[in-house]
Amino acid sequence: MARAQGVKKLVVAVIDGMKPAALQSAIASGGAPTLARLVRDGYATGECISSFPSLTPVATSTITTGSGPDAHGVPSMHWYNRAEERYVDYGISFPSARRSGVISVLKDLIYRINQEHLSSKTPTFFESLEEAGVRAACTTYMIYRGPHEHEFVGSGMGGRLASVTGMSRSGWGPSELIYGDIFDSQNTPCRSSFGVPGRRDQHASCAALELIANDAYDFLLLSLPDNDNYSHRMGPEAQPTSIAHADTQIQKVIDAYGGYRAFMEDHAMIVLSDHSHSTVREGLDLLGMLRADDWGILQPRQKPRKAKDVQLAVSPAARFGAVYLLEPAHRARELPLVVSDLRKHDEIEHVLWRENGEAAVASGHDELRFAPGDTYTDARGRGWDAEGDLAVLGLHAADGLLVSDHYPDALTRAWQALRTERLGDVLVTPRLGREFFDWGGVAHVGGGTHGSLHTDDSAAQLIVTGTGESREHQPAWSIADVHELVLEHFNVNSPNATPVQ
Ligand SMILES: [Zn+2]
């Protein structure tokens, strides 16, 4: 047992969408004293790079499994499931969920993402830790998959609703799972109020206090999602307010253990965000753009066999979009047409597709092609061959090293997205300041959002305190590294070391 060997407990707190600059502001104004202390006592970077798309389901799967979407299989917030001939929607917005079918969205979000969409070949850190005898616990987090069956408890309003809609199924998680009002292995008095934004962080800390009181964990994933919703509504500049709220919840957990000194004597702590946020000034109608070029698009809940004059399925998801060609026999003819139709719009930043075993990325007239190779090395030490205009991804080469200021870790992230079977044939991102309207017509104009390769969406925060061996001088961080940090801390071997090729 890890505890018997004197390894400290570990808490990983994920503050959804926390922008590093906003954390700096919160710390400077005295609004985040606990996070400030953790930074001071450990090491931190504001350049821990998210997945691509930089969207929560994808990033959360990357954090828990240490792999990219090409391996873990969770492709986006909204995607087209070719096998089932339907859109999968993890709840991108309520109007979108109504078009997808609310019950179907809840099943995708709570059950199927863990049991069906997340690949069984990429174990989560919950699974690897439990297998090694480490007691793992999780508050409401999108990815919770583990070896223990948890019965549906159906407490509170959310639980009752789930029950009447036929969703009262078991879930498989770590030893301890307190998830909304759905699963509650500790039989806590905590209620999630149907997961109302602004109340979720409080529910997580309430759950953590119960776990502490019962000494029920060695590893705890403390999920603090309220910041993301706040930033979507109020914009990334307003994040210091929601970060202060998250800071208070973390402090509550630390206080419950007898204060900072007592807590850190027995714990290591990792705090991170899964992605960042950029400001939205304008909504962009991806569906309308394609329809204007005479493409027929499959509607939510429409079956392709019954649809007339439909060639595409399209999944706009914040600052990312996936376009699927529905008829494989027409792919060779239709793919270049979709690409050229999207490239002609000034508001589009990147159009990405696969061709002859290579990745292609275009921005307007400019184009770059690349594949794993040995001409260049990127910041994380991976080798690439590239041909065309490096500026498309803001890349500049110095002594064989490829670096991009605006699109960090772009080659690996784009490569992984293009190799993700469940993502479309053509991927597309809008220029900074724009967001695609979702199927419910929602964009966060005046607020914040994320999804693209751009650093403003992608550069997340990482704070590591008390894990023993310091990796302070690691040159380039990815949110995927957190999986390894967790397993390393408990001396458990990583099963998911997947090379990029
Ligand atoms: Zn978000």
Mind explaining what this structure looks like?
This protein has 501 residues and is of the alpha/beta class. It has 2 domains: 3-71 and 120-279 and 454-489, Alkaline Phosphatase, subunit A; 282-443, no CATH class. 32% of the residues lie in helices and 25% in strands. It contains 17 helices and 26 strands. The strands form 6 sheets. A 9-stranded mixed beta sheet has the order 9-8-5-10-1-11-25-2-26, with helices on both faces. Strands 14, 15, 16, 17, 18, 19, 20, 21 and 22 form a 9-stranded mixed beta sheet that branches. A two-stranded antiparallel sheet has the order 3-4. Helix 1 (20-28) packs across helix 11 and helix 10 (226-234) packs antiparallel against helix 11 (239-256). It is globular. The two termini are 35 Å apart. The structure holds zinc ion. Residues 17, 56, 228, 232, 450 line the site of zinc ion.
Strand order of the largest sheet: 9-8-5-10-1-11-25-2-26
Structural class determined from secondary elements? alpha/beta
Distance between the termini: 35 Å
Name the hetero compounds present: zinc ion
Question: Count of helical segments?
Answer: 17
- Write down the overall geometry: globular
What value does the average pLDDT take? 94
Helix content: 25-40%
Question: What CATH architecture of the largest domain do you see?
Answer: 3-Layer(aba) Sandwich
The percent range for strand residues is 15-25%
* Contiguous uncertain segments of 5+ residues: none
Please provide the count of β strands.
26
What's the CATH superfamily of the largest domain, by name?
Alkaline Phosphatase, subunit A
How many individual domains? 2
Cα-atom Rg, whole angstroms? 22 Å
CATH topology of the largest domain: Alkaline Phosphatase, subunit A
What is the name of the CATH class of the largest domain?
A: Alpha Beta
The biggest beta sheet, please?
9 strands, mixed
